[in-house]
Amino acid sequence: MSNYPESLIYFMWPWQVYYRISAQTSAETLFNKLDTGLQPNVFLIGFLKKDRQDRLPICVEPEDIDFKLSEFNALTERAREHFNKHERREMFYSGPGQQEEMHGRLINETLQSALVEILNQSENNNGKISFASKAVMIDDFEVYVILQLDREIYKTHDHLSIERNDQNLKIHTSLLSTVVEVYLEERTRTLYYPNPGKNLSGDSRIADELWREAARTFMYTISSKGKDFYGLHGLFDACNKLSIARYEGEENQGYLIISDKMNVHVELLTTLEAPFNFKEFRRVRKLLQLSNDEIGMVCNTNNVFGLGRISNEYDPALESVFVVRFISIHCWDVLHHGKPILQMRYSLPEFPPETISKSKFFSDAERTFSLATKDDLEHLYDLALTVTNQAKGALLIISNDAQNEAKRLGNQCFPLIPEKLSADTILNLTTIDGGVLIDQHGLVFAYGVILDGVVGKEGDSARGSRYNSAITYHEYKRQISEVMVVIVSEDGSVDVIPNLRPQIKHSEIERIISLFESMVNTTEKNVGNFNQIMEWFQNRRFYLTAEECERINKARIKIEENFGIQNVRIVYDDLMPNSEMNTTYYINEHN
């Protein structure tokens, strides 16, 4: 790519590579805080809308996506099928110009939905679920931003199932689905800038703004359950105001029930003779003072009806009754059938992590144990998840050499005749000091195991003896055997060792290095692009080989020399290879 952008095969506009890097970085910042198992991947796809001999009809960025371009040849036909089946196809709009405007919107909408369908039905989606932004015309191409997330992890965030309300308007099933929508809307907005990608540092809003917007949008799902149009808007801001409202000096710890007034599953215990507006915050706060964990203030987000409770006969599949629980100043949760679906802390959503992420556990265990089957991994995950329920703390040691380890440590544990360990049994075995020793197939060999080892470089003086003994043992044994340790501390924290970094595509690193090297000879001094690519390298420094570090360092020095002396600039240290890095951290791209 020494003569970028001319060297691009699938050329759409000069800044497409930089724009894609910015979109990828933004996605990682946004979704990794929510769940690191989502592993966001972003690419661009453009469809040429004019007859030009100097451009290809379909272009992608980066150029080595998992899909075949031939899969998108049927997009127009697939979109026509979506259009002919669409419920709004026969609607007539009488205002001047409205019919043409709404017809054009529907065509764009069905093109977008057809593209998503092609991506998600493709045999090349590699377990990812895909989403597409709206199309934006750039240099004769209709350009879409495609966001991909791990499908299984995405499904675990679906707390609700109903996607349309009674007025057939789209509502969201999780905060994650709302974050996806907000992210894609933001990418669409940035594509409308002149030369999108040229100004990498200033086009997109920060992650906190997008998370806040997503939470506000998700609250429309909750307010729609009141079935009152006048209460549809403003619930998010109202809850924020109520969370800071005091009553006679006391913080709000009230309990708000949101439902349709006629819902048979909400029993009114005291009914107001004259319901009042939910926006009368002083009156609302006073009534919330009378609520508790059983009895709440009942409203439809427009009017308040009194105090009541949710019936024990309520079927959660109806998704018609929701609760807002106020915890303290600027802290409140939204719950459905007792399960939190949104947690707000100081005007931002909080993302409590899984006790143990299933996708990460599978990834790390699969790379640790060479002979473990998928059934083995499922069983190991169930056992690991079970030990997290041990209130006094626990250790689960998984080793391919468990049989010999049980003999070696026999004087300090209770060796067993090997048998398949069940989730019910393991909780009993962890009630005494020491760990439970099993192999990669889930066979138990000992319990009450006291770990040994030689103190090395790893460890944390701020953590307890259970954590540090596990660290020492793993550092000692990993050189000669395959070992994983699950540590449950008494404070409830859970650690899984090794904590491996996710796998990435090595070809992407090579491509960005080539792009970076091409900046050495460019005449344009774009500090924003330089800093953005350096940030990309910094975020992936663990994965860089010694040769790649050397190439990046040399190119960086030359580019900085070309920039000349500046009053303010970011100073970058030389990148250095990590001794822990090996080829197992690269995705196999040759399958």
From TrEMBL:
Record's Pfam families?
Answer: DACNG (PF21752), DACNH (PF21750)
Per UniProt, residues of the DAC domain are 341-508
Superkingdom of this entry's organism? Answer: Bacteria
Gene3D superfamilies in the record, alphabetically? DNA integrity scanning protein, DisA, N-terminal domain
User: What is the protein name stated in its UniProt record?
Assistant: DAC domain-containing protein
